[in-house]
Amino acid sequence: MKRAKLMMLMTQAPFFSIFNLLPSPRSVVTMSNNTQLETIFNQKKILRSRVRKALKGMDPSARFQEDNAIQNIILDAPWFRSSQRLCAYISCSSLREVDTSKVLSEILQNPAKEGHTEMGKRLYVPRVEDKNSYMRMLNITHMDDLISNSMNILEPAPVDADGKEREDVMQATDPVDLLLLPVEVNPYVFLFAHSGLAFDKSGRRLGRGGGYYDTFLKNYLELVKERNWKQPLLVALSYSVQIMNEEVIPVTPNDFPVDALVSPAGVIPITTAAQERCH
Q1: For residue 249, which of 68, 116, 211, 243 sits 20 to 30 Å off, Cα-Cα?
Q2: 3-class state of residue 190 by DSSP
Q3: How far apart are CA 234 and CA 47, in angstroms?
Q4: Which pTM value belongs to this model?
């Protein structure tokens, strides 16, 4: 499907009208005082409330269909198939995140072995360490490596079955090429999968308010720059009701935009890097 047709489909989604009633923030916000910051936080709070309501109202069968469509698009995408090291979130149904179980299972059926990354993918998944926005991405090779935390969310145990500490992506000798993010909103490809509550079509991501992904991204991208690695592709997975018109989501200097969105309608490349790698 061509990008023009994709954009037309997304703009025709009925959910967009909800957010058109909100005042449009400036493209770049410079914090000059606490009042501006408080205004942005209040705008985000309103958006989170409306998106959560829309997610809660999704028909279960429609959610199931969108989950499958999004994961199939990812699994068939050249930028995913060519990735060798990636970070991806573990979906939580109670948080109404886009399901990633099919993608994770595909990766873990043929994980990369130590010293043999060309034979599979090396996967890092999040582990929350404290309430101060500190999150690590640890390597796993099996779904059995995951345990439920105090909030009943699956995450990797800090050590493996042999008592050996799991590799932290911040200590890895090679970069990841892809990062898959949830929303509330070199020859290697670094893929990150993002989570969040909502995204707009200019790449802004509305998270759940904890700051875990933004803090992690800040630290990891600083490491990438320090080591002169190629920057990973930041890809957000989003239900159709989570995508908004351009510049609807208010941002602060600490918010990181994404490179591309994957929705049930297809891939929406946003940055030049995504346009080059998603076509």
Answers
A1: 68
A2: strand
A3: 22
A4: 0.73
- Alpha-carbon distance values, 241 to 16, 23, 270 (Å): 8, 19, 18
Q: What are the residues facing 267 on neighbouring strands?
A: 262
User: How many angstroms separate the CA atoms of 186 and 132, rounded?
Assistant: 33
Cα separation of 59 and 105, whole Å? 25
Which tokens sit at 100? 């990633």
Q: For residue 168, what pLDDT is reported? A: 97
Residue in the structure block whose two tokens are 């959560």: 52
Residue 256 pLDDT level (bands cut at 50, 70, 90): low
DSSP state of 94: G
For residue 223, pLDDT over 70 is answered with: yes
Contact 175, 224 (CB under 8 A): yes
Whole-angstrom CA distances from 174 to 83, 103, 228, 230 are 13, 22, 11, 10
Work out the angle at residue 69's Cα, subtended by the Cα atoms of residues 65 and 75, and round it to the nearest 5 degrees.
145
**Of 89, 84, 56, 110, whose CA–CA distance to 205 is shortest?**
89
Q: How many residues are there in the chain?
A: 279
Structure tokens at 202: 């200019």
Q: How many CB atoms lie within 10 A of CB 94?
A: 8
First-to-last alpha carbon distance for the chain, in angstroms, is 11
Cα gap 152→149, rounded to integer Å: 5
At 84, list the tokens. Answer: 């060798």
Taking the CA atoms of the chain, what radius of gyration do you get in angstroms?
18
Q: What are phi and psi of 245, to 5 degrees?
A: -65, 165
Helix, strand, or coil (residue 47): helix
For residue 150, what is the DSSP state? T
Cβ contact 192:273 at 8 Å: no
Cβ-contact 181, 91 below 8 angstroms: no
Q: Which residues contact 166 (CB under 8 A, 6 or more apart)?
A: 138, 139, 140, 145, 156, 157, 158, 159, 160
